[in-house]
Amino acid sequence: MTEALLVIGVILSALAVALCIVIIYRSGRTGSGIPPLLDQRLLSIEGAIGRSDATIRDELGRGREETRDGAKSLREEVTVCSNGWLARYERQ
User: pTM score, two decimals?
Assistant: First the structure.
């Protein structure tokens, strides 16, 4: 029983490999296979994605800068407040 399953598995694997080879061979022979209008639309979509990607990167960079500046300002404020509190505490 297990030998029969093994033989069936080997045969199916060989058929899958042969089918892959046929598909690769046919796709290599027939150029791109994409109509020119569709190819043009795909290129315009690719360009739009590239522009969106650049915009998102710039926006994330600005967000990081704002966060960094805000954190620095908060640290300075906490330092000033804690120094004032410490001075009052030392006077008592």
Answer: 0.47
